[in-house]
Amino acid sequence: MNVNRKFYKWFYDNIHSKYYDLLMWWCFFPFGGEQKVRDKLLSKVSFKKGDKILDMCCGTGNETFAIAKHADKSVIIKGMDLSDGQIKMARSKNKFPNVSFQAMDAAKTSYSNDEFDKVIVAHALHEMPRDVRINVLKEAKRILKRGGTVTILDMDNPPSFWTRLLIGFVWFYWLPFNFETPTRRDMLKRGLLKEVQEAGFVAASKTNMFKGVFQVVQAKK
Could you tell me which of 7, 94, 97, 187 has the fewest CB atoms within 10 Å of its CB? Predict the structure, then answer.
């Protein structure tokens, strides 16, 4: 882990995890609230009985819990995140018997080949440099079963100037020390759909939601 990733982990472990849920409330508020946004984005996912699902880069577990509400009770759901602080928060909120959490690096997990039916990566790739994004996507492919699907929920670049202005204010793009700015711009410039294909996935597709603010990219192994 390089110096930047060490700082990133320290920041999330000790600071960001403590106000992450409040930040998510603020970020999703203009779009009808966090639950509405998560539910609509997950509406693109087809859940089946007996699935084994990984919520990769799960944060404090809010996306994991949303998955649990959409999926059958027979589904096994695992959440993982690089930050021990985020995982600690997720575990403290967990009320689902079929959900568990573990701290590990998404670019190099301890999961077996072909272990999961579905991998979901929500609102995380835009924080990563390109090499890390590609490694995380390749790792998602490794641990998916053949024919399994990856679903990526992330931000996009809406066509409307006024929409871009709104989210730029709400999501703190104007802060000079916002460490997500260079990686977010790089992801949008290169195209998340193209990077998913570059990682080896097939049948990749992209859907825009909330007037182009968010994108849902899905593909198969």
Answer: 97
The Cβ of residue 108 has, within 10 Å, a number of other Cβ atoms equal to 11
In contact, 208 and 153? CB cutoff 8 Å: no
Tens digits of residue pLDDT in 108-163: 999 999 999 999 999 999 999 999 999 999 999 999 999 999 999 999 999 999 99
From residue 135, alpha-carbon distances to 9, 36, 105 in Å are: 17, 30, 11
Element (H, E) at 193: helix 192-198
84 burial class (0-12, 13-18, 19+ CB within 10 angstroms)?
middle
Q: Are 59 and 86 in contact (CB under 8 A)?
A: yes
Dump the DSSP string for 148-167. EEEEEEEE---S-HHHHHHH
Domain range for 47 = 3-220
